[in-house]
Amino acid sequence: MAILEMEELVQRGLDRAIELIVLAAHNSYRFEGRNTLKIIVAGKEEMEEIAQFGYSMADLSPLAARDGRHVIELIKEPSALIIFGDTRRSPFNYNCGACGFRTCKELNLAEPTESLMAEGPSCQFKNLNLNIAVNAAASAAWRLGLYSRVFSTLAFGARALEIIEDVDIVVTLSVSAAKRDPYFDRHQFWTDEYWDEIFEKEFPTYTRGFIGAIED
């Protein structure tokens, strides 16, 4: 039998783990048993494209720029980016009103609103399904011994670049088999001066300022 070195074993293990992670997400709970999620795995080339996109948005979204720089470092070791997406319209006919409309029909007929994060308005249960799947995937990654983190910034980059298509709401799960946890502290990409200047302005609350620029 040929000898397998550690580097090859780790990459093989990561590839197999990603399949199991996607399986866990696929089999997570769905309202009415409906599974309309789209799940893809980005390769290193696509991850680099997403990283460059995030970095190019430094003036609009310092958070996206920071995470873009983080991905450039991330892809130097075994890693992958799992992208989850869904459409915004409701197939449920629950008429719950959580989306802001009285009925699902009104939601589905509403003119879409484009934003940095997604296209809305979106069905509350579609958002819940999406987050259930991502949480199941993150849990599976942890059980398999991988480092992982959910990203919204990388998600809107993947959607803007059409790496994932025909979806309105998107979330990503980054997984890594690096020698140390790469998600522990990403603030290495911000100097103390930049932190003092930008953080207080952009991150006071979980509003649009948390993701993108706010006007003075």
Description of the structure:
There is one protein chain. This protein is globular. By secondary structure, it is of the alpha+beta class. The mean pLDDT is 88. It has helices spanning 6-26, 44-56, 62-74, 104-109, 124-143, 153-160, 192-202, 208-211; strands at residues 38-42, 79-86, 113-114, 119-120, 147-151, 169-176. 44% of the residues lie in helices and 14% in strands. The protein has a domain at 10-85 and 130-200: NADH Oxidase. The strands form 2 sheets. It has a 4-stranded antiparallel sheet, sandwiched between helices. Strands 3-4 form a two-stranded antiparallel ribbon.
Q: Keyphrases for this structure?
A:
four-stranded antiparallel sheet, 14% strand, 216 residues, two-stranded antiparallel sheet, 6 strands, alpha+beta, single chain, 44% helix, NADH Oxidase
